[in-house]
Every structure is written in C-alpha cells, then in structure tokens.
Amino acid sequence: MKVGKYDIPNMRLHPNLFEATKLLYENFKSEEPPDALTVAKVLEHQTDKSGAFISKLADLRAYGLMEKRGMKVTDLGKKLTYDPSEEERNKALKEVLLNIPLWKELYSKFGKTLPTSKFWVELTKITGLEAPDAQKIEENVRNAYLADFQYLKEEKKPEGGVSGMGAEGGVDTSTAIIEVKIGGYYQKLPYTEEGIKLAKGFLDLLENQLKSKVKPKEKTAKEEG
What's the predicted TM-score (pTM) here? Predict the structure, then answer.
C-alpha cells in the first residue's frame, strides 16, 4: 500500500505473517528452502506464481522476517516466533515493526497510540500526501498501524524526562520522546529540535511563574540602619 513517499505491507503481522514465519521455520529450520513452489505449498498456496503468494513474500521481507535474497527465515524471525524469553520476543517484535519506515516515523512521534482526530494532518506532514488524499486513507493507515502494534508491550518509562535512554545513558533517537509530567499536567513531545524547544519553553514559563510567587524578604530595622 502506497502512502505518499512510503510503502506499508498489505498484510498485517498478526496473525498471517507471524504464522507464515513460524511455518517456514518449523519446516526448513535454518536451511534455505529447495524452491519457491515448496514454500508456496507450505504457506497453503497452490502455486508460487499467484499474486497473493508473491505479495506475502514481499511483506515478510519488508518486516525483516525473511531474507532479502532467497526464502530463509531471518534470525529476527526465529527470535520473534521461538525465543524462550518473553522480553526478547517483545524486543524482536518492536524491531520487526520498526523495519517499516512509516511505522518507525509514527512510533517515534506518537508511540502505540495515534491521534483520534485529524490524523490526516500528521500524514500530510510525514508522508508528503496532499490533504484530500491523506483524508481518504487515514482510517486505513490507522487501522493497519494499530493492528500491528496491538501486541507490543511498552517498556516502563521514568516519571518525566526523555524516554528511550540506552544502557550507556545515550538516547535512541529512533524511538525517543519527551514527556513532561507536572501535577495533573502531562504532555508528550517528539524528540526533535522543535520538541526540545517546546519543552524548554514550557519549563521556562513554569520557572518564571514560580519566581513571581516568591515575595522578596522584608528588611529588618537593623538591616535598614
């Protein structure tokens, strides 16, 4: 599916592509399948020439579940389907989803939840689509995105600050966001130059408000004399 300058897979990750990856790994392990027809039969297609089969292969490669050349399951695909650790499977799932360039852009800005109102406006900014075209496909894009991300478990984030901090204290800019949480106020901002400026501006405003509430200390008679 074409979305401006981006492409998104026609088929969703769950359940079809997940099950396809699992079937391929169970049947061929780490070996290259003998031929395309054998793969087609395993994936319940009558022929390797059908449009549905060819499209499925393209989608598996787009998510990074199948090697770009050949039809062998990638290490990422193996980890997603059979890693014994739930945490590692979740990490693999996140990596698989972010292999889709548009999903990576949207996730870096909104996380798992997309705007419920005027999402098409964001699509025009990100994809380069004209407004009428973005309005026509916004629901399709939103539904596809939410379907793909429904099983991803978000990592626990600190109270405020920048999420996406690495083990060495660096920031993974591909997924990082800025969260401002003060009392009942909460705001999520993209980790971009504009987002940083907005966050700093908000903090400066709070600092000025705090200073205005602090009354200067009155001088004593001794200090005045």
Answer: 0.70
